[in-house]
Structures are given as structure tokens and as C-alpha cells.
């Protein structure tokens, strides 16, 4: 089927490549012409394992195209996916300016009736509003049908998730559109759930809010474990064996970040408030997440005698999670400036995101792609992202390179016993330092 995808960010690019891979002919449209140029050279504009090869293969097979020209992109497309950003506004609500603009751009170039699929995460009711917006701008015989198809991929494993996800949700009031979308998605071989539009929009927010709740819950348990001498890793294992709870998203640490959980939890609180519903549970989830970073800062300050001035601190990991170069809402964006404000001399390492991080934090820290360089002569190391190379590092490496082997681990990468045996003063989240 001929499909257009508007927006070639993390979601749009992966969606376009995956739809081409299962046999559709896909044209991805983006207003950023530099991005389009890079993509047309076969170079992915984001770091995502497996994406480059799949993208190049489908370009070579003439199933995948990139353009900044809406008329070309929409030419003979039967379905168009909208996958532009919905970032957070200062009040926490979702900013729909990009979605509206893309809808207007789309309406200006429609030459035949289409099914418009909104993949962006949008507040409940937005699909109807976008359908009305487009249909007001186009002649009667070119009216579009709308469908909600929220995206559940995780950055860092986006390609894997697209082909092995738990479900595909299709929300539409139009049975013919539901059938077309079922046909498009069938080759993925995943369970497909058909719902009404509002429920589909809500499924996305409810899922992210629930996952964020699991993370904040285990972080609160971790904070309590520290006070009571229990080990949160053992507690999480014991909880996760109960199939009603499940083992995923019970990893204590410095809290969640990224382009989705923070903005989607804020947007749901806002959405609830707009409808006179005080979502207290979710407000606490957000507050606990904020508190995790403050607690780690306090621990570092207390251990270093309250004064970080002139201390050389190695920050390991900057991306909001491993296997991505995405820095949006990464804990590093809070931790690095806060440590710098306290006078620390910072050298920060990330295997992939150092360049992006430098653009955002270049005023307050020095950046490197080499972990050894970060650790050399450091007074203290702070781990913010559990990249595999950081996890695999031998405890002796800290001992050998650092001036003082003091390690604060915001991701529980190592066994406290092994670190202690290697002579490292080691602090993690929710685990006692037993002798
Ligand atoms: P992104 O910021 O990475 O990409 C958005 C892209 O849209 C950019 O390339 C931008 O140039 C392009 N764009 C903006 N306006 C346009 C227009 N009028 N016409 C054509 N292109 C335009 O965003 P993302 O991370 O891919 O997120 C997209 C949506 O998917 C958001 O609603 C997000 O909440 C949701 N989502 C994201 C993820 C994730 O992991 N990133 C996962 C699930 C859902």
C-alpha cells in the first residue's frame, strides 16, 4: 500500500522504515530539509540499533523515500501517518502546535480522500479536533477519515519493539478505515486491538503513567530499604515473581527521564485538571521522580564533606537511557548543572550522546567519548546511565584510574560486595553496604 509518514523523528522514521520493511511503499515527509537530505544519503538522523541497515535496504528496493515536499509525499498515498512532536508546554500540557501545523500542511496538499492516522501522543479528543481542522480546509469530496494509532516503541530498542511489540492499538469510528489499518499492520503479526478513538488516545497516556508509577513506586521502596537495611534488588525480585506484578519496571535508580514519561505524565495531570479531576496519585509519582535526583545530590554532597568546590567529578552516562543519543529530559540535564553550581569540576562521558550533551551542557562541563579519560584522577564518579560498557567495567578500573575511588551509582550497575572488595567506596540506590 502507498503510505506517507509526516515527521521523521524517533517515531516517524522508525514507523516509515518498518512499514517499508513489511512491503509497503512509504514516503516520509519532514519540514527539516537538512534532515531529509541526510536521510536521502542513507544516513539515519537518530541513533537506533538496526535502523540504518533496514533503512538502506528499503531505499535500495525503492520502497522508502524521503522528501520535504508535501505534494510529492502525498502523491497517491492512501493513508498518511502523523508522527510530529507533542512537547510539553510550560504549564505541563501537550503542545499541539506541530500537530495542527502538520494537519494544515497536509490539508493544503490533499488531492484525494485519505485516512489520517495520528501516531503522535495526543490528549483525548485531539483526533476529532484534527479531523475537523482538516475537513474545514478541504473540499467536501476530499474529506479525511481519522484514526488513532498510538506508538509504544522504546527508544534504544525501537526496531525490535516495532516487530515484537505486545499490541497494536487502532482507534477509529470508521469500519472501513479500521479494515485498511488492520491490513497495513497484519504483516507485523502482532495482536491488534480495535477501540474507539478516545479510548485509544487514553491507552497511550494510561500506559505511560502506569509505567512511571511502577518506577516511582520501586524508588520509594528503595528509599525505605536504605533506612531499614533491606536490599531493593531482592525486594523487586521477590515482588516481580508474582505474575500480577511482573518483573519489569521495578528497577530502582535515579528516576525516569526521556521524551515521553515526563511530558506524558504532566499532560495527563493537566488533562485531568481541565476536567475537574485531581490526579493525586500521578502528581506524587512525578514528585517522587524529581526527589530521586535531589537525594543523589544530597548523598554526594554529604560524602564529600558538603563542599564540591574544586573537586574533579566524572559523570558516566548522559543519555536518558542506554542505546539512544536522546538527551530529552535526561537526569543528566538536572544533575550536571546542579553539580557544577556546587563548584565541581566536571568531566562527562557518554559513548553516543556526548556530542548532543555538549551542545546542551557545554558551559558547565567538559565532554569525552572515552571513559578512561573521564575517570583519570577523578575525586568521585557519578553513574547516570547504565550503558553496557559501563556495566561491564571491572571495579579495578575505578581503583586504578581515580584519585579517590568514590562511586555513586544511580543505576545499580554493580554488586556492592564486589565494589567493596575492590576497595571502592560505593553508594547505590536502595541497597545496604553490608560488610
Ligand atoms: P521528534 O521531535 O523526534 O520528531 C518530530 C519530527 O517532526 C521532526 O523531525 C520535525 O522536523 C518534524 N516535523 C515537525 N513539524 C512538521 C511538519 N509540519 N511537517 C513535517 N514534519 C514536521 O519526535 P518523536 O520523539 O518522534 O515523537 C513524535 C510523537 O510520538 C510525540 O507525540 C511523542 O510523544 C510520541 N512518541 C514518542 C516516542 C519516543 O520514544 N520518542 C515513543 C512513543 C510515542
Shape: globular
What's the level 1 CATH class of the largest domain? Alpha Beta
Strand arrangement across the biggest beta sheet: 3-2-1-4-5-6
Proportion of β residues? Answer: 5-15%
Unreliable spans? none
Structural class: alpha/beta
Description:
- By secondary structure, the protein is of the alpha/beta class.
- It folds into two domains: 2-195, NAD(P)-binding Rossmann-like Domain (Rossmann fold), CATH 3.40.50.720; 196-435, NAD(P)-binding Rossmann-like Domain (Rossmann fold), CATH 3.40.50.
- Helices cover 45% and strands 13% of the residues.
- It contains 18 helices and 14 strands.
- It has helices at residues 10-21, 33-40, 51-60, 70-74, 97-109, 126-137, 158-164, 175-185, 197-228, 232-240, 261-274, 280-303, 332-341, 354-361, 371-375, 388-391, 395-401, 416-421; strands spanning 2-6, 25-29, 64-67, 79-82, 115-118, 145-148, 168-171, 192-195, 312-316, 345-349, 366-368, 380-383, 406-409, 425-427.
- The chain has a six-stranded parallel sheet, with helices on both faces. Strands 11-10-9-12-13-14 form a six-stranded parallel sheet.
- α5 (97-109) runs parallel beside α6 (126-137).
- The longest helix has 32 residues, at 197-228.
- It is globular.
- The mean pLDDT is 96.
- The site of nicotinamide-adenine-dinucleotide (NAD) has 27 residues, from α1 and α5.
- This is UDP-glucose 6-dehydrogenase.
- Keywords: NAD, Oxidoreductase.
- Pfam families: UDPG_MGDP_dh (PF00984), UDPG_MGDP_dh_C (PF03720), UDPG_MGDP_dh_N (PF03721).
Amino acid at each position: 500500500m502507498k503510505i506517507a509518514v509526516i515527521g521523521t523523528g524517533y517515531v516517524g522514521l522508525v514507523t516509515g522504515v518498518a512499514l517499508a520493511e513489511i512491503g509497503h511503499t512509504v514516503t516520509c515527509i519532514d519540514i527539516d530539509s537538512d534532515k531529509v537530505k541526510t536521510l536521502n544519503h542513507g544516513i539515519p538522523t537518530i541513533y537506533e540499533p538496526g535502523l540504518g541497515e533496514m533503512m538502506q535496504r528499503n531505499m535500495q528496493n525503492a520502497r522508502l523515500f524521503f522528501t520535504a515536499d508535501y505534494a510529492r509525499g502525498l502523491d497517491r498515498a492512501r493513508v498518511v501517518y502523523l508522527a510530529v512532536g507533542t512537547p510539553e508546554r510550560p504549564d505541563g500540557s501537550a503542545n499541539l502546535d506541530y500537530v495542527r501545523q502538520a494537519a494544515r500542511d497536509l490539508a493544503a496538499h490533499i488531492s484525494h480522500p485519505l485516512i489520517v492516522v495520528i501516531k503522535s501522543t495526543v490528549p483525548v479528543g485531539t483526533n476529532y479536533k484534527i479531523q475537523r481542522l482538516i475537513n474545514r480546509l478541504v473540499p467536501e469530496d476530499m474529506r479525511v477519515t481519522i484514526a488513532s494509532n498510538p506508538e509504544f516503541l522504546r527508544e534504544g530498542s525501537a526496531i525490535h519493539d516495532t516487530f515484537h511489540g505486545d499490541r497494536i492499538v487502532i482507534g477509529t469510528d470508521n469500519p472501513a478505515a479500521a479494515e485498511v489499518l488492520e491490513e497495513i499492520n497484519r504483516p507485523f503479526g502482532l495482536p491488534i486491538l480495535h477501540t474507539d478513538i478516545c479510548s485509544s488516545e487514553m491507552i497511550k497516556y494510561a500506559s505511560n503513567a502506569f509505567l512511571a508509577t511502577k518506577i516511582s513506586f520501586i524508588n520509594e521502596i528503595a528509599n525505605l530499604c536504605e533506612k531499614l537495611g533491606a536490599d531493593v534488588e531482592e525486594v523487586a525480585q521477590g515482588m516481580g515473581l508474582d505474575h500480577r506484578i511482573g518483573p519489569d519496571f521495578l528497577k530502582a535508580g535515579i528516576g525516569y527521564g526521556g521524551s515521553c514519561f515526563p511530558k506524558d505524565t504532566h499532560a495527563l495531570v493537566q488533562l485531568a485538571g481541565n476536567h475537574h479531576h485531581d490526579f493525586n496519585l500521578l502528581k506524587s509519582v512525578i514528585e517522587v521522580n524529581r526527589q530521586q535526583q535531589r537525594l543523589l545530590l544530597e548523598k554526594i554532597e554529604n560524602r564529600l564533606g558538603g563542599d564540591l568546590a574544586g573537586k574533579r567529578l566524572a559523570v558516566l552516562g548522559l543519555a536518558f537511557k542506554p542505546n539512544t543519543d536522546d538527551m530529552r529530559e535526561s537526569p543528566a540535564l538536572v544533575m550536571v548543572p546542579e553539580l557544577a553550581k556546587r563548584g565541581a569540576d566536571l568531566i562527562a562521558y557518554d559513548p553516543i550522546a556526548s556530542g548532543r550533551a555538549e551542545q546542551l551542557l557545554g558551559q558547565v562541563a567538559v565532554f569525552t567519548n572515552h571513559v578512561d579519560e573521564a575517570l583519570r584522577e577523578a575525586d568521585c564518579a557519578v553513574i547516570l546511565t547504565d550503558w553496557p560498557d559501563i556495566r561491564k567495567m571491572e571495579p579495578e578500573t575505578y581503583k586504578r584510574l581515580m584519585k579517590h575511588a568514590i562511586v555513586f551509582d544511580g543505576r545499580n550497575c554493580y554488586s556492592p560486595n564486589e565494589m567493596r572488595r575492590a576497595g571502592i567506596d560505593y553508594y547505590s540506590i536502595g541497597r545496604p553496604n553490608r560488610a
